[in-house]
Amino acid sequence: MSITLSSLSSPSVPLRLQADDVIARLKRLQALEIQSTRLLGGWLPGVATWEVKHEIGLHLWQDAQHSRELRTRLWELRTSNPDRTPDAGVARLTQGLASAQEDYEFLSGLYLVFKTELVRAYRTMVAGTHGVYDAPTIAAIRRILPEKEDQLAWAGQELKSHLDTGEKQRLAARWQEYIRRLLVQERGVTGAEPVGAGEELVTLPPGYSCPLPFAQAKRDARFKITLTSASLPKDDDRDAKVLFQFFNYTQEMQAAETLGSTLWEADGMEWEFYYEIARHCYDEVRHSALGEARLAQLGHHGSDSPTTRQTTRGGSSTIRCAVTAC
Fold it and tell me: Which of 195, 189, 80, 37 is nearest to 125 (CA)?
């Protein structure tokens, strides 16, 4: 007789999830978390607003850590290689989410639909598994949820300023509906949701295709893009040298954008590759934020100094080739 979580539960607390259900959902969710990291990295150069770049640089690293939490739990459940059998549904969801045409579309679909469904799935698992026998799964999810909820709160507030015209609101709403339908087609984020009979295959809106990878990084209207870097300050001008130093710190975003493109372009790599590149990417975002914070103390913003246009695609391909050759 096979023992399941539901067969061990108290009769007064009926459970919906058996042990195999928990493992299957954890496998799918951990894969989606690392794909979310790749999506945010791929779109990092394509998002124009400076402050949003910093935020999603943090979020892609958080998502990688959330994937690690779930993989650790799977290892405890004797699932040592959760990637052994690739999930085609995860690949289709990832490609669909990547195929927005504007950054506000991408962000609204990823956060307001996809990540919202992730949070719902996590809460459902907490409520539907055994509080004693599966306590480690509940603990792992409860470590994930606060950061996910913070991400959703940020996105809900941030997108208000981006969806500032009726046309943008219409396009964002259409994109969100596409992502909802795609999730239904792929049986939700857990892969366990029912699919209605006779559902038509979901297709992208007319004229849409995946824009990744971005050949060049975008900047918002505050930034002045030049062909050459700023001139070095004079040796005896201490104030100018301090400003120059911290303006350079903000330019670490260029390294982050190249690493973000690498996350997307390097398809089919081992999970550990994406985790380490995500860590490096966030580290560069944090360096940029360090410069930004010091400039703010000095009464400046990173856009006060001209910046060179960053090419991301060639650089990421070079890094990818170097890594895969090792």
Answer: 189
